[in-house]
Amino acid sequence: NDGARRWKCNICARLNDMPADYFYGEDGRRVPFDIDKRPELTSSVVEYIAPTEYCTRPPQAAMYLYLIDVSCGAVQSGMLKTACKVLSEELDNVTGDSRKSIGILAINSKLHYFNLHKNSGQPQMLVVPDLSEPFIPTIDDLMVNVKENKEKLKELLEMLPSVFESSGDADCAAGPALLAAKEMIFGFGGRVTLMLSRTPSAGIGALKKRTDSGKAEGLTLSPSDVFYKNFALECIQKQVAVDLFLFPNDSVDLPTLSTVSQFSSGSVYYYPNYHCEKNPV
């Protein structure tokens, strides 16, 4: 526009002054000499690295916290075994620099934390049965550096399926696990991955099975509990995203559970009737 001295935004239609360092040829085509070096003029999508002026704080280490359902349903379907196997294989491929850290929290009717200090011998399991006021049993070595503790993480992921193999605990305290995750990761920011084989059934955030009672479709598809949405809104303020992986063999309240990812910039992955042998991913 205006003799190539101004340009219009395709989104808001605002006219802006053309940067002074755009030099144009004299062939009448109004094409910059260095167009090949300007991806914003030749590509439909361009990603910019935000400068420090756009950051609320200096770049933090990548933090990943995995909340894994270890109820008997997760064991029987093979979800637990598959999750541990894939995580163990992908430790080196997790995004982040040499500072990236990982923590693992196992969930049934209790919360199972793991001390992963590289010099502590076998991974130490710390069990918290109180779901009304979940607390962190120790502040050290629940989130550990991947590079320094990779063998310890692999050891834990290998032993986890056998630890809960004979457990008859069918409950899943996903809500209290998320509250525990808040204490573990909110100080840093990062990513929480919640893996469930069933609808949460214990503690805060427990959900009842939804049945078709003749209600209007809009009501059936609406969240039945605001806990997960409210938690997601807290996550946004702390630079935390929540990914949700569901491997149910029964109906789950997806409209409610999905809000934890929807409002925290996370993703939802849904694998109905999952079984590691009969119906694998």
Name its key features.
281 residues; 9 helices; two-stranded antiparallel sheet; alpha/beta; eight-stranded mixed β-sheet; single chain; elongated; 18% strand
SSE arrangement:
Blueprint: E1 6-8, E2 15-17, H1 39-42, E3 63-69, H2 72-77, H3 79-89, E4 101-107, E5 111-115, E6 124-128, E7 143-145, H4 146-163, H5 174-185, E8 190-196, H6 217-220, H7 227-237, E9 240-246, H8 254-257, H9 259-262, E10 268-270
Largest sheet: 8 strands, mixed
Q: Based on CA inertia axes, which overall geometry fits?
A: elongated
**Coarse structural class:** alpha/beta
What are the secondary-structure elements, in order, as H or E?
EEHEHHEEEEHHEHHEHHE
Q: Taking all residues together, what is the mean pLDDT?
A: 83
Percent range of helical residues: 25-40%
Poorly predicted regions are none
Distance separating the two termini? 53 Å
Report the strand count.
10
Strand content: 15-25%
Q: What is Rg?
A: 24 Å
SS field, number of helical segments: 9
Notes on the structure:
The chain has 281 residues and is an alpha/beta fold. The protein has 9 helices and 10 strands. The strands form 2 sheets. Strands 3, 4, 5, 6, 7, 8, 9 and 10 form an 8-stranded mixed sheet that branches. Strands 1-2 form a two-stranded antiparallel ribbon. A hairpin with a 6-residue loop joins strand 1 and strand 2. Helix 3 runs antiparallel to helix 4 and helix 5 packs parallel to helix 7. The longest helix has 18 residues. The model has no long low-confidence stretch (mean pLDDT 83).
